[in-house]
Amino acid sequence: MNSAFTFLSLAIFPLALFIFWTLSTTGPSSPLGRGFPTLTNKRICLLIAHPDDEAMFFAPTLLALTKPELGNHVKILCLSSGMCALLMILDSASGWFLIYQITGDAAGLGHIRKQELQKSALRLGLRNESDVFIVDDPSRFPDSMTATWSEENVSGLLASAFAPQLAAQASSQSAPMATIDILLTFDQSGVSYHPNHRSLYHGARAFLKTLMRGNSNHPCPVTLYTLTSTNLVRKYIGVFDVPIAMLSGVISNAFGGSGDRDTLSTSPSKKTQELRGIREPPPANRLLFVNSVDDWLSGWKAMVYAHKSQMVWFRWGWITVGRYMVVNDLKKELV
Ligand SMILES: [Zn+2]
After folding, report:
1. pTM of the prediction?
2. How far does the centroid of ligand 1 lie from the alpha carbon of residue 278, in Å?
3. 239 Cα–ligand 1 center, Å
């Protein structure tokens, strides 16, 4: 009786998981997911710190927003070539594993990781390798577990990349313009508290403030979304985090207010939309992307087959049961 019950449970669990996962998916072909807001016809930049951030943290977002029918053009801007690595070595004297950080490009790791990022981006739906930009400037943006990047340096780089006419605008008082509509990056906790990730959040906010300096009468042409960080337990419950993410989004919307009252944030300007022939509602305050099983496998393969140099043993747990491989919830930032 007990063994029959156990066998039945083992048989039912994968089926129940598959049904739950299918119902939780937010893609256009999912049964319940069509009502979730998304982004269409937007010029989108994902700002990351290291090659592999796009696959380990943002795979559901990229796989959702690069769907051709949405008409988005998605690019990735990565601020380091990823020359920092962690080594775990068994110390025979103490019997403990010791963690060492190594930094440098002695083995040509930086070059390898650039190629890995490009391969991964294509697996996650980007149109072309040329849509991936990697800034290799260790003096300003060192890949390090202990280095915080200057807010001014990150903001300055974003301004030169996406608002090159900023200086002319400041003197003319004309509406701010940018070559992107949407900027995506980490939130202030950076998912893993990595200082490089957290620097992107502060730099992105500083960029929007710079863009709007002296232009408070106009809406900001760039909308900033940040990836919500969760506690340790939620990080490792995969698709089962979907109801929690949904509930926390509802509660946050109910008690956090709508964000549209702030003229510095929100949607691309009406003028920008008219110039581009687009009349759409402003971007939602929150975005939720839940991978289908197929898309989850695409993210999984982006790590395993594209980021081969990074697939040390502890990454297998992250990509198999990690919620960021399945669920991304992003919040529109008020600046
Ligand atoms: Zn990273």
Report:
1. 0.83
2. 35
3. 22
